Amino acid sequence: MNASSLVADTVWKTIESTQSVTEEQLSILHFLFGKNFERATKIVDQRGVKKISGQPSGRSIFQVVGESRRKEEYLCFPEHYCACYSFFYDIVNRGEQLCCKHQLAARLAAASGAFIDVKVSDEQLALLLVKL
Fold first, then answer.
1. A Gene Ontology CC term for this entry (predicted)?
2. Does the pLDDT of residue 1 top 70, yes or no?
């Protein structure tokens, strides 16, 4: 894990523990993630993040809207994967970014509690995961 990731993880954990975000934390995350973080904050502010939890297992995945808020919705594991084009192009293939704006939006929403909580059966969650 590189230094940027370690700093980001520390900030995320602090946000999670307090369920609030300070200006200093926003500045640090913006410095680390740049324009992707700016876009992620817009998505969170527009309530564009859903946490879909399977019942009774409690397993979950996030569904994050695209910036255009049209029909684009991406399934996302905040720390590991996003189904968007940018994840594969900028992160996996080119290694230019640490994560995409959808992952950042999901992580920020999860840490601050600013997501829409959707409960589904484990079977419905499995059907969503099959689409990945």
1. Shu complex
2. no
Distance from C-alpha of 55 to C-alpha of 57, rounded to nearest angstrom? 5
Segment 62-119, tens digit of pLDDT: 999 987 756 789 999 998 999 988 888 777 777 677 889 999 999 999 999 999 999 9
CA distance 85 to 4: 23
Angle, helix 23-33 to helix 101-112, in steps of 10 degrees: 160
Its pTM stands at: 0.89
Long-range contacts of 67-74 (CB under 8 A, 24+ apart): 67/39, 67/42, 67/43, 67/101, 74/102
Biggest CA pair distance of the chain: 41
For residue 11, which amino acid is it? Answer: V
H helix and E strand count, the chain: 6, 5
Residue in 125, 12, 129, 105 with CA at minimum distance from that of residue 58 = 125
